[in-house]
Design brief:
The complex is a heterodimer of chains A (about 140) and B (about 140). Helix content of chain A is about 40%, strand content about 20%. By secondary structure, chain A is of the alpha+beta class. Chain A has one domain: CBS-domain (Roll), CATH 3.10.580.10. In chain A, the strands form 2 sheets. In chain A, strands 1-5-4 form a 3-stranded antiparallel sheet. Chain A has a two-stranded antiparallel sheet with strand order 2-3. Chain A is elongated, with a radius of gyration of 17 Å. The relative contact order of chain A is 0.24. By secondary structure, chain B is α+β, with helices and mostly antiparallel strands. Chain B has a single domain, classed as Roll (CBS-domain). Chain B has a 4-stranded mixed sheet with strand order 2-3-4-5. In chain B, strands 1-7-6 form a 3-stranded antiparallel sheet. Chain B starts with 7 loop residues before the first strand and ends with a helix. The chains are: A alpha+beta (about 140), B alpha+beta (about 140). Chains A and B meet through helix 2, helix 5 and helix 6 of A and helix 2, helix 5 and helix 6 of B.
């Protein structure tokens, strides 16, 4: 398997991912996720990673908010919720030079779909299961 | 490598008549995100945890008291019908390509004569990759 052991995350990550701010409203996440066909968005504050919001959080938040907010449309509901209220704050990250096999371990063991790539606290990329599968396929 | 070498044999399945609540429970208990829907051994659909969450949250938006009723809905009403599948003797590479292109978490494995015989997920592919790395380093 060529480069199987040496491959690093920076070779396969997507650079400059779309990010959101903690004060943005949830409808923005909804737009980004549905228009971009993506499922995870890092949340950054002044360049620093502070959380991640996923398609799952979006759906879960909509359900959780409903009890207090009768008769609101889905779009009004999403507009009224801030990203910081639903994002996951404990985010597993990797560095650009993390070996690809370590990320594959993380994804297989914890069933995480996406890991932000962080260098000195700043988000420089995003690596997803799709990126890893492409890499694995290239080796086969 | 063939799909059959990696797939999970005889995966959990539900019938169209089983409830959304039951599918939700099965996925949570077994830490899985997709369940093939069958009629006997014939694959007729697939339901994912995303389908279930989206269905429940939409139902709740329409009526906050609708949770119980939504959980009792038949799986057949919310499943994706005519799901893509792959054969046990197909190349694993084809399955991996399908996972990438379609952004699927898993693909049901269907044998023409026997019906559903397995399921292959991205986690299976990653585990296999890691095992191969492990073998190389010994």
């Amino acid at each position: 398997m060529k480069n199987g052991k040496e491959g690093a995350v920076r070779e396969i990550m997507m650079g400059s991912p779309v990010t959101l701010k903690p004060e943005d409203s949830l409808d923005l996440a909804n737009d980004v996720i549905s228009l971009g066909r993506i499922r995870h968005i890092p949340v950054v504050d002044g360049g620093r990673l502070v959380g991640i919001v996923t398609e799952r959080d979006l759906i879960g938040a909509a359900a959780a908010q409903i009890f207090g907010l009768k008769n609101k449309s889905k779009s009004a509901l999403l507009k009224s919720v801030k990203i910081k209220e639903v994002m996951k704050k404990r985010v597993i990250t990797v560095a650009p030079n993390t070996p690809i096999k370590e990320v594959a371990h993380l994804m297989a063991d914890k069933k995480i779909g996406c890991v932000p790539v962080v260098s000195d606290g700043v988000v420089v990329g995003l690596v997803t299961t799709t990126d890893i599968l492409r890499y694995v396929e290239g080796l086969a | 490598m063939k799909v059959v070498d990696l797939m999970t044999i005889d995966p959990l399945t539900v019938t169209t008549a089983e409830t959304v609540g039951k599918a939700d429970e099965l996925m949570a208990e077994n830490n899985i995100r997709q369940i093939p829907v069958v009629n006997g051994r014939e694959l007729v659909g697939i339901v994912t945890d995303r389908d279930v969450r989206a269905y429940l949250s939409d139902a709740l938006l329409a009526d906050p008291n609708a949770r119980e009723r939504a959980l009792k809905t038949a799986v057949g009403d919310i499943m994706t019908t005519e799901p893509l599948s792959i054969g046990p003797d197909d190349d694993l590479k084809d399955a991996v390509e399908m996972l990438i292109e379609q952004k699927f978490g898993a693909i049901p494995v269907v044998d023409g004569a026997e019906g559903i015989v397995g399921i292959v997920s991205y986690v299976d592919v990653l585990r296999n990759y890691l095992e191969r790395l492990q073998e190389e380093s010994i």
